[in-house]
Amino acid sequence: LHSTRSSRPCMATKAIHLASRLPRIATLAPRATPRAYTASRTLISPARAAMTSPKTELVYFSDTYQTSCEAKVVSCEPVEDPGDDGVARFVVVLDRTVAYPAGGGQPSDTGRIVGPGGVPFAVASVASTKDGTVTHLGELEEEGAAPFNADDEVTVTVDADKRLLHARIHSAGHLLDVAMTNIGFGPDVMVPAKGLHQPDQAYVEYTGKVEGLDKDKLMADLKAEMNKLVSLGGGSAAAMMGYDEAAEACGGELPSYIPKDSTPRIVTIVPDTAGCPCGGTHVANVKEIGSVDVTGVRVKKGTTRVSYTIEGMKDHK
Fold first, then answer.
1. Cα dihedral sign for 73, 121, 143, 89?
2. pLDDT in tens, 205-242
3. What is the tally of helices (H) and strands (E) in the chain?
4. Backbone angles phi, psi at 15, to 5 degrees
5. Contact in structure between 109 and 99 (CB atoms under 8 Å)
6. CA–CA dist 88, 242 (Å, integer)
7. Cα–Cα distance between 31 and 33 in angstroms, integer?
8. Which H/E stretch holds residue 145?
9. At what angle do helices 215-232 and 160-182 cross, to 10 degrees?
10. What is the pTM of this model?
11. Residue 313 has what DSSP assignment?
12. 168 — phi, psi (to 5°)?
């Protein structure tokens, strides 16, 4: 997850760098938190959360609001089956990228890669392999244009509005965990298990159920608590930590998929609360999440799903 490479500076012009108007995610020292809060929730792929040194440097790890960077092409391979439209598509691997690969319930970034020829390569989706190699799938915007060559110097740019929306939705999922604990449904009652954080649907699933649960009251209480936390604000934190330090920051222990010789990335969405391993993009301050609505509670086979929306999502009211 962490790379020591810093040979080429990333682009930081006002047009492509949202940090000029929004604060960056800060690095927060681990805080003493109740052991009971420790969650097994997989907010990102276990490999990406635990990885010490991925193949591709993840530039977005250090700054959610950075939307462009320079990189070097490692490979550019054609997709064997171009599809019904016959358009030639390629999979591009770079030595570093600002583009977020889909994982942990969060969709990938989309954007463009521009190289020496000047013809934009439209990135339709981004993915990550088990060894941390990030792949960019897309097509050249000019028919017949030559694909990239290995070692080409390129600029990667992602859709800034989409990046920020995804970060806000994902952060709201973490905020939901905090709100659950605050109203009496913490991990000693319901353990966060997995989440989906997409513009058309967002929820967190918890292992456990409460007999006789008043779903309407739970929804109302969570909505009130989440909006209160947004109103109060507070700096979020994302930091690579040694295993023991990370365990302390997460309430005393880490999920079993985190190797003890790793340096996981720990995200704490609200100061003075427990963090959890996460490789996603997040807002710098919970105020940026905006208004929240809790739209449903479903209990099935020992799992409780809590659905939510925020401003900018489909069906948010």
1. positive
2. 999 888 899 999 999 999 999 999 999 999 999 999 99
3. 4, 15
4. -70, -30
5. yes
6. 44
7. 6
8. none
9. 120
10. 0.83
11. S
12. -65, -40
